[in-house]
Amino acid sequence: MSFRKAVSVIFMALLVSSSIASATDDKQKAAAATDEDGKYFDAEGTPTYKLEADGTVDWYTFSGYRRYHSDCHTCHGPDGMGSTYAPALVDSLKTMDYGTFLSIVAEGRKNVGGGKENVMPAFGENKNVYCYLDDIYVYLRARAVDGIPRGRPPKKADKPQGAKDQEASCMGS
Length: 173
Known about the structure:
The protein is α+β, with helices and mostly antiparallel strands. The chain has a single domain, classed as Cytochrome c-like domain (Cytochrome Bc1 Complex, Chain D, domain 2). Helices cover about 45% and strands about 15% of the residues. β5 and β6 form a beta hairpin. α3 packs across α8. The radius of gyration is 18 Å and the shape is globular.
């Protein structure tokens, strides 16, 4: 391989790795910047978590914990840590954007390669998941950036009226 070609390959690898590194979520990027009736958003408008100094989590993070452990943990493991047949979502959400998360959960995904097949079923018609996608995302994001520890959050904020209204509308009650 020529020197010029080797330099080009190294340069491209650095570009790819720097773009991956800049896309990595962290506590600073996930910091709550705004709040709408107890639902928090980062500076870019993406749903995020809020942890108070006394360990109280916002309602949506707590709800996400509950919803994740009722429908997702059987494949993706407790607290998003992964299993032998589904990836650790605490790792995936470090580089996965909000839109991609919503799309994969709603539509499902199939990966085939290396002699193995992974299938994420579509949950777009399962109201117990679909109506709480933001909650699940917020919980997993908090876990991915080490914003909250493993296990059930010890304290939670009260359920805001906006959450009650959205739930009634989505669930059809």
